[in-house]
């Protein structure tokens, strides 16, 4: 595996800038900044497209978290001003993408390759896995952070469509579903535009079209949010206190709503990004145009 000096420098400088920005804006605490540097280093070193997707996820999810934060404080038990993320949250959202990026570097080196299942099968599979995991993470964040405050009426539990309090794990709404689609599509758009810029028209002239990256990002976002909701509704406890605050742990005065206390929010996010990252290449392979060969 050989990487240019420009990539090494960028892989050191860019993650430091991201971590510093997160600390200054309150999006990350110190442990989150350290974990963010590690994730950013691996993704930047592997592929410029991976960096673009990471930046899209980090910046857009941070904005979504801060959107109407005072309103969220009323029903979120673990509310933090600015959505300050620690190392667990960073690794459970970006760790899967970092692992796929490591496999990409080992298998394909530190280069950009077009999505082409005929000529670049391994790089296509691993790049799509990175796209899937980051699109899912962004879509889930958009759904939970925007859907909860934009939805009209109470969400419904994904397993039985019963109305549940806002903030319940596994609760879905039309606003949240639309937000997840847009969040995933935005990561796919960043991936597509960076592919075009990094590879150029000549390299892509005889390759399959790259625009389906946007569609794949959208579908990966929907898939990730669905997996997250199913896990949350069944394996993650949700209860409501006497004050109407939704909590994730059983206790005195807590009325159970759904799920069992087997997983927490971090483990659900980790499983969701891994599952979506693994399934996205299969989804893309079924949808991708053949191109010119």
From TrEMBL:
Which cellular compartments is it found in? Membrane
Give UniProt keywords alphabetically.
Answer: Membrane, Transmembrane, Transmembrane helix
Transcription regulation recorded as keyword: no
Q: Cellular component per GO? A: membrane
Q: How does it sit in the membrane?
A: Multi-pass membrane protein
**Residues passing through the membrane, by range:** 35-59, 172-199, 211-233, 268-288
Into which family does the record put it?
A: Belongs to the TMEM19 family.
Task: Return the protein name.
Answer: Transmembrane protein 19
User: Taxonomic lineage of this organism?
Assistant: Eukaryota, Metazoa, Ecdysozoa, Arthropoda, Crustacea
């Amino acid at each position: 595996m050989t990487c240019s000096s420009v990539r090494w420098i960028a892989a050191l400088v860019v993650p430091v800038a991201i971590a510093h920005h997160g600390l200054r804006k309150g999006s990350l605490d110190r442990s989150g900044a350290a974990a963010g540097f590690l994730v950013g280093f691996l993704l930047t070193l592997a592929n410029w497209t991976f960096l673009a997707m990471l930046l899209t996820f980090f910046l857009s999810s941070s904005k979504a978290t801060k959107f109407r934060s005072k309103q969220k404080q009323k029903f979120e038990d673990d509310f933090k001003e600015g959505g300050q993320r620690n190392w667990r949250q960073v690794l459970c959202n970006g760790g899967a993408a970092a692992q796929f990026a490591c496999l990409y570097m080992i298998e394909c080196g530190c280069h950009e390759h077009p999505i082409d299942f005929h000529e670049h099968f391994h790089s296509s599979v691993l790049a799509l896995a990175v796209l899937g995991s980051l699109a899912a993470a962004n879509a889930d964040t958009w759904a939970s952070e925007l859907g909860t405050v934009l939805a009209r009426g109470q969400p419904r539990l994904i397993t039985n469509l019963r109305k549940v309090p806002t903030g319940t794990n596994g609760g879905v709404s039309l606003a949240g579903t639309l937000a997840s689609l847009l969040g995933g599509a935005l990561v796919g758009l960043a991936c597509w535009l960076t592919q075009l810029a990094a590879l150029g028209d000549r390299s892509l002239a005889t390759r399959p079209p790259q625009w389906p990256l946007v569609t794949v990002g959208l579908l990966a976002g929907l898939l990730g949010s669905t997996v997250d909701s199913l896990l949350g509704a069944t394996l993650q406890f949700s209860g409501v206190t006497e004050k109407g605050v939704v909590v994730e742990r059983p206790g005195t005065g807590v009325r159970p709503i759904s799920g069992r206390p087997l997983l927490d929010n971090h483990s659900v996010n980790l499983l969701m990004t891994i599952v979506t990252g693994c399934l996205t290449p299969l989804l893309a392979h079924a949808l991708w145009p053949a191109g010119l060969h």
